[in-house]
Amino acid sequence: MADPLTRLVEVEMPYGKYKGRLIADLPGNYLNWFAREGFPPGELGRLLALMHEIDHNGLAHLLAPLRR
């Protein structure tokens, strides 16, 4: 399985308002909404939850070296 941090800068949101945007580039308020309402199942949900934690703790800058 690929490194989850690397996947944040590879996987695009497959649906909704931010369809096509990288998980790493989703706005905090959108991630907060998922945290309140529930993350989807599977890898997408795990990645959204991970990005929420990274964003919430102000650590998004750590993903910069992983971008292509």
Mean pLDDT: 96
Shape descriptor: globular
Estimated radius of gyration: 11 Å
Number of domains: 1
Residue runs with pLDDT of under 50 for 5 or more positions: none
Please outline the major beta sheet.
none
How many helices in DSSP terms?
3
Secondary-structure-based class equals: mainly alpha
How many runs of DSSP E, i.e. beta strands?
0
The share of residues in extended strands comes to: under 5%
Following the backbone from N to C, one meets helices and strands in this order, namely HHH
Roughly what percent helix? 40-55%
Terminal CA distance: 19 Å
Overview of the structural elements:
It comes from Ramlibacter alkalitolerans. It holds the Pfam family QSregVF_b. This is DUF3820 family protein. With 68 residues, the chain is mainly α. The chain has one domain. The protein is 44% helix and 0% strand. It has three helices and no strands. The protein has helices at 4-8, 28-37, 42-56. Helix 2 (28-37) crosses helix 3 (42-56). It is globular and about 30 Å long. The mean pLDDT is 96.
